[in-house]
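Exercise 3.2. Students should predict the tertiary structure of the chain below and write it as structure tokens, then compare their answer with the key that follows.

Predict this chain's 3D structure.
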Amino acid sequence: MGFEEFESIFGEPRAEWGKSSDLGRSAPLRRFLMHVFAPDYYHLKIQATDYNSNTFEANKSISQLEDLQDSIGIGGSWSEFVDYFVSSLKSEEIKLVLEKQSGGDGAASARLVSQKTKGMPLISISLRRVLDGDANDVMAAISFGLFKALKCSPKMVAQGVEYSSQLMEADKISNLLERLEHQRKPSIASFQHIAGDAEDDDAES
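Answer key:
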């Protein structure tokens, strides 16, 4: 049980201030980029940043995610929970809820809130704010992670095009064989007809 085959997830959660924040004095929020990945087999790391003044991170172990599974009431196996978790992170319902720090203008913390579809169990994960050099490291990690994902995309597209070309060639060969088969059948029938006439002539003579 782990994250051996976990594929990185990138997304743009809808950012909003939490209900406890003074919305009248809260600064407008920028757009955020989110990155979820497995640094090893036993942990998931969740990062989000607006590449300005708000950067957040959470590192969750398998045991912590198992507790999350129990708390939100999702039954089934571990793999079924991971599937639901991933689907929730990829859904259009995902949002990043920021809570203001006391006496300051920035956010003290954030929560990543998501669900697979409306009406299904809600997943909420707390993220801590990271500052200075740590924030720069998170922003760099997200940027390089996205770069690697985009770098792999052309290869995947090329593989798909090559596979499609192979299917088209196989289809052409199949059609050609069918045409040859249809052409061969009349020839066999004609040969049988000629052979039959020859036998009749021999019988008459």
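Discussion points: The beta strands are 9-11, 14-17, 33-40, 43-49, 55-61, 95-100, 107-114, 123-129. The longest helix spans residues 132-204.
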